[in-house]
Specification:
The protein is of the alpha+beta class. The protein has six helices and 14 strands. It is globular, with a radius of gyration of 18 Å.
């Protein structure tokens, strides 16, 4: 964002993916990408498994909307993260769609559920806000993730596929990645990896433990794309608390300067 908006540089989608690989390769324990980076500008963001090709991909400008999905294999585990950002002034419709995706992401993130229920029983929590607007997405909401293994690792997952009856259990790592894709225009996805732990509840009906999701991914979610009035008080609190965790986790690793200032701006409360 600093490079494109402040410095006026116009990289291609391919150059964005290569620069991201360069940054990630500088991190301790990096082995290789966990999958080919999806860097989709504008209409290419609506292609769910898009991959930019050198010489034939879009160029980013200060009016672009970008969907960026990437990950790495490290000696300590596997990562997978997606963020959608706008470098200029998003339309009201883009912001409304983005906010509906965010509401679904929060709904799944804050869910408390009995141990052992299959992912198809909680998939609709991530889609409910989109459904209210007559929108949806044609992919699963979450997949299992290995530790230095497959970035898409079964048998657990969260989707509408009711044939997958694998129960969700403590210690599992999954993705939380609702989205929306407007064909020929733009794509939106917000993806964090989460791990499953015991939730504290007043009761444990049927002598079952109840579970919750905990964020592993620490990357700001662009506030400019959020419609504040569409968010409940609890959802605003979630965004603010998540961004506080991002700041507390990442800022000590940064030297003072432009990047740290950018992170501070991105993680201030709504």
């Amino acid at each position: 964002e600093i490079t494109i908006v402040d410095q006026g540089v116009t990289p291609t989608e391919y150059e964005i993916s290569e620069k991201l690989l360069e940054f990630r390769s500088l991190q301790q324990g990096f082995i290789e990408p966990s999958f080919a980076t999806i860097a989709g500008e504008g209409e290419n963001g609506a292609i769910i498994h898009y991959r930019p090709e050198k010489g034939s991909c879009n160029t980013l400008t200060d009016s672009s909307m970008l969907l960026l999905d990437s990950g790495g294999q490290f000696d300590c585990g596997t990562t997978d993260v997606t963020r959608t950002v706008h470098f200029g002034e998003p339309s009201d419709y883009q912001k409304q769609c983005y906010t509906r995706v965010l509401k679904g992401h929060i709904a799944l993130n804050t869910l408390v559920f009995p141990e052992g229920i299959p992912g198809f029983m909680i998939d609709s929590f991530a889609r409910s806000s989109l459904w209210r607007g007559g929108l949806d997405y044609r992919h699963g909401t979450g997949h299992g993730v290995g530790a230095g293994l497959n970035v898409h690792e079964g048998p657990c997952g969260i989707s509408a596929r009711y044939t997958n009856t694998t129960g969700i259990c403590k210690g599992m790592v999954l993705s939380n990645e609702p989205g929306y894709y407007e064909e020929g225009s733009f794509g939106i996805r917000i993806e964090n990896l989460v791990w499953v732990s015991k939730a504290e509840t007043d009761k444990e009906f049927g002598d079952k433990e109840y579970l919750k999701f905990n964020d592993l991914t620490m990357v700001p979610i662009q506030k400019k794309l959020m419609v504040r009035d569409m968010l409940t008080k609890e959802e605003v609190q979630w965004v603010n608390e998540y961004h506080a965790k991002v700041w507390d986790s990442i800022s000590p690793r940064l030297k003072s300067g432009t990047t740290k200032d950018w992170l501070r701006h991105q993680t201030t409360p709504l």
